[in-house]
Design a protein that fits this description.
Number of strands of chain A: 12
Strand content of chain B: 15-25%
Radius of gyration of chain A: 20 Å
Shape of chain B: rod-shaped
Shape of chain A: globular
Order of helices and strands of chain A: HEEHEHEHEEHHEHHEHEHEEHHHEH
Distance between the termini of chain A: 17 Å
Distance between the termini of chain B: 64 Å
Oligomer: heterodimer
Number of helices of chain B: 9
Helix content of chain A: 40-55%
Number of domains of chain A: 2
Radius of gyration of chain B: 51 Å
Order of helices and strands of chain B: HHEEHEEEEEHHHEHEEHEEHEE
Largest sheet of chain A: 12 strands, mixed
CATH class of the largest domain in chain A: Alpha Beta
Largest sheet of chain B: 5 strands, antiparallel
């Protein structure tokens, strides 16, 4: 299994990164040759579908084409691609920040009613629209009788204490391949020195590295894997309703919250449609809808106030730092040394 | 526009002052605003520069060498902080001996470079925006080789704009308040400056028509030439007036002697004359001579009153005595027309007046003369002397012969006479002399018609 994964990784790493790999496309509203609003997004269609459906219900004349891709492709598409998209939504806050900083986003002035909290926006170019806590998912059946770790310190002790059981049974993102995984890992490293200790321990347990959270959750559900680290909460919660072997744990030392962000790319063909959609997404109606009808949290979510350990990742120019060539190279080297022993 | 404004207002010193002061206030306010704003821009730029310098030095701290390779561990918090205030965009570039190492390769800056203590700060135009950049070069040793590293960090100027906008709003408010206060002071100054002119004008305006004294009000030195020339004018005017009066008096005096000769000659001729036509002619001549003589006397009287009005010779005397003496002078004339003069007085004998007696007598004489002249034959003229707290009043009442066109507003005008009085000799100067004399002694004179055919003249004298 491990070799297969590594082989897969090598295959993916060599694949050309400048072509947009489209994972799925879905259209909403009336059929048109070119949709009024073309959204390029990294959010699973199933998660975001209720929002799009609600929008179409409110504005039946608008046609939407929702194109799903991964964060890295999205980033390169916006920088160098030729396909015109009107709205770009991604969970990779750092890449989105770099796009906005480097001038690939249009300025959008939104009405007062669609202004999120200060921390959720950068200039008037990058708009956070939902929050998702990042946690770990464990196999419910395995932790039936054992107390699951509640913090990273607990986790490290647990991993050390149960090396025999857990060898090859831990998975996390392959940060070389997943933009989101890279973001979570770098934020971990920034937040706490214990990250590298944990990475070492994970490496000693030959932790499996995956590109995508879906596969990791499947593996946990089947019992093939016992613990998946740094999983986006919304996916996990949604899956845990259908796959009953999943238990989502939010560490109590700190739980980072991912801010999904949207920007209007410079080459937009339909600025007004993009702005209208942003207004809907960010006003009370849209935010309320996100909170109640999707697995994501709204920007004003009560969860933030109730759980002090929930920390939204700061949407600022600090995010650019780990994208620096040398910094990234150094981080990946450290990471590799920790994970491949 | 400005010229029009000036043209419109230049007739008023106050408005001219106001406009000039106002313009000065506006210019000063504008200047103040610009100077403070400039200082502000410098302060904010200096702050941004310090921030960039700190960022550069924290980046330098994170440069390290591994296997003769220069590497860099970009500090997260530095970048986070740089963008914290104004959500500024950040670009950076690091070159190793001129070879691009990391950051943004196309950042258009080639030097010069400062050092850690004194980075060079410049504005760079990049991607449609102006960035403030700090650049330094730093030498590090990799192996045995000295390597020249150049580091540029550029930050957009939202932070500046944010701070400037915030403070400028307050600054505009403060400048506006300053302007308002300055303009208020301009109003105050203009009014204060103009006030002496106003009071000087009032001083001249308040004067009576015959007040030809010199103007002596306190005026600012700038107005002294005006006052001097005004006084010069007044004195020339007074001289000319006096010359005219003297001339008239002289003329009247010189005319009276030949008139007496003409009159006596004419009376002689009348006695000798045989034909009724000649007698009629001579009577006419005598009447005209009488009339002319009287006019000349009145003109002399008038000149005298005007002369004394300027230099009243005040003296103390008994009011009762003065009036009684005057009445006694008129009794023979009254007897000629079978008139009686009844004098009543509620005044004490001792009650004294302090004023120019000649002027009082002139006015009373003219009043009595008129009262007798126009009274019905065999009637009584009443003269009453009374006193209240403020004044002594002389009331002269007669039964008038002819009141058809009595007009109280016309009777004090010079040379105005009632149309029905042509038979009675008179010049039309009598009552105007009374008025002038009364004014000169601060008395008031009223003539009014009473019930029936009576007319009364009331002369009120200040105690």
């Amino acid at each position: 299994m491990r070799y297969l994964i590594i082989a897969l990784l090598i295959f993916f790493m060599n694949s050309p990164s400048d072509a947009l790999v489209i994972e799925e496309v879905r259209t909403y509203g009336p059929q048109k040759d070119t949709a009024d609003l073309r959204i390029l997004s990294s959010t699973d269609i199933d998660v975001f579908d209720p929002v799009l459906t609600a929008y179409i219900t409110s504005f039946p004349s608008v046609s939407i084409e929702y194109v799903l891709s991964n964060t890295s492709d999205i980033y390169h598409e916006v920088r160098d691609g030729e396909e015109p998209f009107d709205l770009v939504m991604s969970s990779a806050m750092d890449l989105q920040m770099k796009l906005a900083n480097d001038g690939f986003a249009e300025s959008v002035s939104l009405p007062e009613t669609s202004q999120g909290p200060d921390w959720s926006q950068w200039q008037n170019k990058l708009f956070g629209f939902s929050l998702e806590p990042i946690g770990m998912v464990v196999s419910k059946s395995y932790f039936n009788n054992i107390e699951a770790p509640k913090s990273r310190r607990d986790l490290i002790s647990f991993l050390r204490a149960n090396q025999h059981d857990l060898r090859g049974k831990i998975v996390t993102y392959d940060v070389r391949q997943s933009g989101a995984g890279f973001l979570f890992a770098t934020q971990d490293a920034r937040q706490s020195d214990s990250y590298w200790r944990m990475a070492e321990v994970m490496g000693s347990l030959t932790t499996g590295l995956f590109c995508c959270s879906g596969e990791m959750l499947d593996a946990v559900n089947t019992g093939e894997v016992l613990l998946a680290y740094n999983i986006i909460g919304s996916y996990a919660q949604k899956r845990s309703r259908e796959q009953d072997n999943l238990l989502v744990i939010y560490p109590q030392d700190y739980t980072h919250m991912l801010l999904r962000t949207a920007l209007v790319p410079r080459g937009t063909q339909n600025f007004q449609a993009a702005r209208d959609f942003l207004i809907f997404l960010l006003n009370d109606v849209g935010q309320d809808f996100i909170e109640k009808r999707t697995d994501m949290l709204s920007l004003q979510s009560e969860v933030l106030n109730k759980n002090r350990q929930f920390k939204p990742i700061r949407l600022d120019t600090g995010l650019l730092v780990y994208l620096d060539r040398l910094k990234k190279q150094r981080f990946l080297e450290e990471w590799k040394e920790a994970l491949f022993q | 526009m400005i010229r029009k404004l000036f043209a419109l207002k230049t007739t008023s010193i106050r408005n001219r002052l106001l406009i000039q002061l106002g313009l000065v206030a506006v210019v000063i306010s504008l200047f103040l605003f610009l100077v403070v704003r400039l200082a502000l821009v410098q302060a904010v730029t200096a702050t941004q520069d310090r921030l960039l310098a700190a960022a550069v030095s924290s980046v330098v701290d994170k440069i390290y060498v591994v296997d003769n390779m220069v590497s860099l561990d970009l500090p997260y918090d530095t970048f986070s902080l740089l963008g914290a205030i104004g959500e500024d965009r950040i670009f950076y570039q690091i070159k190793d001996d001129g070879k691009f190492l990391t950051g943004y390769e196309d950042l258009p800056y080639e030097g010069p470079f400062g050092d850690l203590q004194e980075p060079i700060f410049t504005n760079i135009d990049y991607l449609d925006e102006t960035f403030r950049a700090a650049s330094i070069e730093n030498v590090i040793f990799a192996g045995n080789q000295a390597r020249r590293l150049t580091i540029i960090i550029a930050q957009s100027q939202n932070f500046q704009a944010t701070v400037l906008t915030k403070i400028s709003t307050n600054l505009i408010f403060v400048t506006f308040i300053f302007l308002i206060i300055a303009i208020l002071f301009a109003f105050l100054t203009a009014n204060l400056t103009i006030r002496p002119i106003g009071s000087f004008a009032d001083d001249v305006k308040m004067r009576g028509p015959s007040d030809l004294r010199k103007v002596s009000s306190d005026v600012p030195s700038e107005l002294l030439p005006l006052v001097h020339s005004l006084n010069g004018f007044i004195s020339r005017f007074r001289t000319a007036l006096r010359q005219t009066e003297t001339f008239i008096a002289e003329a009247a005096h010189h005319i009276r002697t030949p008139l007496s000769v003409v009159k006596s000659e004419s009376e002689l001729a009348l006695r000798k004359s045989k034909t009724p036509e000649n007698r009629e002619h001579l009577r006419n001549i005598i009447r005209s001579v009488d009339q002319t003589n009287r006019s000349a006397t009145q003109l002399l009287d008038h000149a005298m009153v005007l002369y004394r009005a300027e230099r009243p010779e005040k003296q103390k005397f008994s009011a009762h005595q003065a009036v009684e003496d005057l009445i006694n002078q008129f009794r023979p004339a009254a007897d000629l027309r079978d008139l009686d003069i009844a004098f009543s007085s509620t005044l004490e004998q001792k009650q004294q007046l302090y004023l120019d007696r000649t002027l009082l007598e002139t006015s009373l004489r003219n009043l009595l003369d008129n009262a007798l002249k126009y009274a019905i034959a065999e009637s009584t003229v009443f003269v009453d002397l009374s006193q209240d707290k403020k004044q002594i009043t002389v009331t002269i009442t007669n039964d008038a012969a002819n009141l058809k066109d009595f007009n109280a507003s016309q009777i004090f005008k010079k040379f105005k006479r009632g149309t029905e009085n042509k038979d009675i000799i008179g010049s039309g100067l009598g009552l105007s002399i009374v008025l002038e004399a009364a004014n000169a002694i601060n008395a008031t004179i009223k003539v009014k018609k009473l019930k029936g055919e009576s007319v009364c003249a009331i002369l009120s004298l200040p105690c």
